[in-house]
User: Fold this.
Amino acid sequence: MTNKNILFSAIFFGLAFVACSDDDEAAAFSVAGTYDGVFTEEKVGTLNDASVITANEDGTYDILVAPSFTLGRAEFGAMTLRKVQLVENEEGYTFENESNGVKITYAGNEAQRQFPSILEFAAHLDGTLSKSGKLDFTLDLNHANTIYFYYTFTGKK
Assistant:
């Protein structure tokens, strides 16, 4: 093999390797993960917490949409909406979800901690997730046709 052929082969395989490397970097973003950020809700205030997105085998995602918090003497548990579908676009993903019968457990005193109460809500979720890892969503929880909680979340992976 001549020096010219060796040089040509080295350049060809080097370019092929670089091209594959760029493809791997573009495909590296994964929707599932922990997004550290801020939950804001008028009655609850501002909470620094994480929203977690978990992938399901059917292509949908479960999203932690509300943190645990205390309001007055009542303690509310975290809430996850299940089977949320993300729609891909050029910037990232959009998602909406309407879930009825979403349950939040709460306990206001020692006796209630043993047998917590359960509130049922209709949840309305609307959000975006950029391919740079920025997650934004709003969530309103209706109880008896009244918005009981209205969350916003902004976070980054």
Notes: The chain has two helices and ten strands. Residues 15-25 have pLDDT under 50 and may be disordered. The radius of gyration is 23 Å. The first helix runs from residue 3 to 26.
